[in-house]
Design a protein that fits this description.
The chain has five helices and eleven strands, in the order ββαβαββαβαβαββββ. With 217 residues, it is an alpha/beta fold. The strands form two sheets. It has a nine-stranded mixed beta sheet with strand order 6-5-4-3-7-1-8-11-10.
């Protein structure tokens, strides 16, 4: 399978949370937000899961730094059952958008989404991520920025589809057993089965600590 080079980027608290118990995600400092948008500007595509769309209604564009419409990457939403609201900002005309669904998605909803975005069908009851990466590569996506959320992050790690991990650690502790961590899902049973990373770079930026890893294979 040919696929894009995939960079997972996230802002998280010192205790590993990417959202609070109320799904508030205002974690990164101003300088880090600008760093993220610089990354977006360089990537062919940016991808999130349906949970991020429902919780945050993000634009997934380059708007924290100077730029133009052409700087916006292709937006990809992993939405197995086609739950993307028709008024979601990701469906605006700021950038091209792909909604990835499974065959379990409502055909009626898919037809409505097609009026505003491209729909890619991969998988039976949930999106087959390997299939999706193959389809994106065929469409010219050579680099992809993964911005979660936690369930999608797990799926991408489980399928060995992540090449780099960049995290900005905020000097904050929020706690909460129901707060979202960087990676959720089923998890690996043993530590040795986990995804091994190699630290390539670290530096401070504003109030945050930036850590850049590559996935060891």
């Amino acid at each position: 399978m040919k696929r894009p080079h995939i960079l997972l980027n996230a802002g998280m608290t010192l205790d590993g949370k990417i959202a609070s118990i109320t799904r508030n995600t205002e974690i990164s400092c101003k300088e880090d937000l600008e760093r993220v948008h610089e990354i977006r500007k360089k990537m062919d595509a940016i991808m999130v899961g349906i949970g991020t769309i429902l919780d945050d209604d993000p634009r997934l564009t380059v708007h924290k730094i100077p730029g133009k419409k052409e700087d916006n990457p292709l937006r990809v939403v992993v939405d197995s059952r086609g739950r993307t609201p028709l008024d979601a900002r990701v469906l605006n005309d700021d950038a091209r958008t792909i909604i990835a669904v499974s065959r379990a998605a409502s055909l009626e909803k898919i037809e409505k989404i097609k009026e505003m975005a491209e729909v890619v069908v991969c998988g039976e009851n949930k999106v087959d991520l390997g299939c999706l990466m193959d389809e994106l590569y065929k469409k010219g996506v050579k680099t992809l920025l993964l911005e979660g959320g936690a369930t999608l992050n797990w799926g991408m790690f489980k399928e060995d589809l992540v090449d780099e991990v960049h995290v900005a650690i905020s000097p904050t502790v929020v706690g909460g057993k129901d707060a979202l961590s960087l990676v959720e899902g089923d998890g690996f049973e043993k530590i040795k089965e986990g995804v091994a990373l190699k630290l390539k770079k670290h530096y401070t930026l504003g109030s945050d600590l930036i850590l850049e890893y590559e996935v060891k294979r």
